[in-house]
Amino acid sequence: MSGTDYRKQLICEGPVIILVEPQLGDNIGMVARAMANFGLWELRLVNPRDGWPNERANAAASRADHVIEATKVFDNLPDAIGDLKYVLATTARKRDMLKNVLGPQEAVGNLRQYFRKDMACGILFGRERWGLHNDEVALADAIVTFPVNPAFASLNIAQAVLLISYEWMKSGHTKPDETAFEAPQTQVADKSELQSFFEHLDSALNDAKYYYPEVRRARMTDNLRSIFTHAGLKQQELQTLHGVIAALERRWLVKRNSRKK
């Protein structure tokens, strides 16, 4: 294939690309090709509709074999991002969430900061037809949007991955902006640790009848996830918050027991 030369060094670095419930193998293959063009290599799929491996993905990847062969499949999004420290979600729609909204250049600058400090990071891309659900966006640290025609804003998955991959490659050849976003100096908690905290918090709030009325539960949960995800909590801070919730749970238990007497 023209432009492919395996005698040269193959760049394999950068953030993880996560596709949530992709439908077409062709799209997955074109994503892999776009990643390979610009030095990205780690692709994760959440519940792909047509299963994996996929022959149509292999064909569309145009010899981006190292991406296809390393692709991992997960049953759900929390597992797919569990080992990551910083996650961005791509979306073209406005979201009523407490999240920073970044352009692609700024987003990649943030990812570079984490990458340089050996902290794993990734980018979420949604379904071909309707993108990411709010509860999925809530798991991310910030939102990425592309400057597109507002009357024709829809990008397919491969196009979106191509744009962010290009920005990634370009950022490796520019001097870091010392006044820009800076990743934490110490290791932040990974997403699996944050998910464990969310589950503990959700259980305690449910027990305390916090989710009222029930029809607002999903939105309330998403807002809480956004608050704690945005905070960039460290492992020790999460342990402290677990202890706080446990203390409140004990208080509720004492109150309930006293009422039964």
Word description of this protein:
The chain has a 7-stranded parallel sheet with strand order 3-2-1-6-4-7-5. The mean pLDDT is 89. By secondary structure, it is an alpha/beta fold. The protein folds into 2 domains: 16-171, 3-Layer(aba) Sandwich (Alpha/beta knot); 191-260, Helicase, Ruva Protein, domain 3 (Orthogonal Bundle). It has helices at residues 25-37, 55-60, 65-70, 77-80, 104-116, 134-137, 157-171, 191-207, 217-230, 235-260, and strands spanning 16-20, 43-46, 72-74, 86-90, 100-102, 121-125, 142-144. Helix 1 runs parallel beside helix 7 (157-171), helix 5 (104-116) crosses helix 7 (157-171) and helix 8 runs parallel beside helix 10. The chain is built from 10 helices and 7 strands. The longest helix is centred in the C-terminal third of the chain and has 26 residues, at 235-260.
Short description:
The protein is α/β, with parallel strands linked by helices and 261 residues long. Helices cover 45% and strands 11% of the residues.
Distinctive features:
alpha/beta, Helicase, Ruva Protein, domain 3, 2 domains, 10 helices
